[in-house]
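Reopening: structure tokens for the pyridoxal-5'-phosphate complex, inputs below.
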Amino acid sequence: MSKTWRPATQLVHSGTLRSQYGETSEAIYLTQGFVYETAEAAEARFKGESEGYIYARYGSPTNDMFEKRMCALEGAEEARATASGMAAVTAAILCQVKAGDHIVAARALFGSCRWVVETLAPKYGIECTLVDGRYLENWEKAIQPNTKVFFLESPTNPTLEVVDIAGVAKLANQIGAKVVVDNVFATPIFQQPLELGAHIVVYSATKHIDGQGRSLGGVILSDKEWVTEHLQDYYRHTGPAMSPFTAWTLLKGLETLPLRVSQQTANAAKIADFLADQKQVAKVIYPGRKDHPQADIVARQMKGGSTLVAIELKGGKEAAFALQNALDIVKISNNLGDAKSLITHPATTTHKNLTDEARAELGISPGTVRLSAGIEDTDDLIEDFAQALSKVIA
Ligand SMILES: *Cc1c(COP(=O)(O)O)cnc(C)c1O
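Re-run output (same inputs, fresh job):
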């Protein structure tokens, strides 16, 4: 496998382990265990003196292909596939901290991610400070002598704020802390956190990587040293491993990832521009637009816009519900990154557990809806929004 291949080529070929049958498509190795030729071979395998698989909770061939393909794309040395995005986030954070340590995290996080750092970690004596991650000085002010991890997502869910990843990484390096980036919203096509200086990248592969609404999955990527020191034993012994069948669906997803993300992004950009001019719309937030509040950081660290658009309607919750109910092609769903266009009302779904105040801090108003653009024909989507908006009072 060539390291110089561009992403679209890596995503079709990297990591493939072809069996003696020479199959074209990657094989699904649905096995829990592995057979050794001799007792001596088993002993050597367990001692780490010979290469090979031991037990599917540790690693297995189909998962290995997925992990290697992700490493090639991300420029990482090691990866571990997990059963969900949340398993990846939880493992990536908890494997490297202990009671008495401190985490600094952006407050604009996917709901379950925020629960892990804000509610779960403190139960085990790990303190967490949540900051408005848009401003670097907030990260700096939150640093304590025991700060070990910085955690962020960029762009954020659902209001598409961005965090200066290189800036946060610089602060972390000054104190020997690690930066974990949840890169779901940016996708591996548009943002490479390791290149920007982050130490660990996590994905919910459920989103764009599957991209066709089939499987839950996640992946953690980093360098060999961090994986060996922190993640390897945690992963082996707590058991967040991905099913090989899921790894196979995700390998197939990766093959078409660049095509889907590019069509989804083109659709998102055109819909964002269309909606920005409509009288029912108060505001459109889209990382690809010049009026994005942090357009300078977007230009610095992202290679493309986003497949998501945050839309604020003038008519509040009533207008948000009327729009969703009137859309025909665009389905109401809290999932994202799918081939199908999906829309959700964060205040009553994904972010319903936050207080009104916490929602306001994140820029989520009763009139906010989040669109995940799919791969449908652009004009059909625009026409769908046009007919649906005509039923929404400005
Ligand atoms: C969906 C998502 C997760 C959680 O992933 P699951 O696969 O649903 O467990 C974490 N972070 C972000 C940003 C997400 O969008």
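The pocket of pyridoxal-5'-phosphate is lined by residues 84-86, 89, 110, 112-113, 153, 157, 182, 184-185, 204, 206-207, 216, 218 (CB under 6 Å). The longest strand covers residues 147-153. Marking as resolved unless the reporter disagrees.
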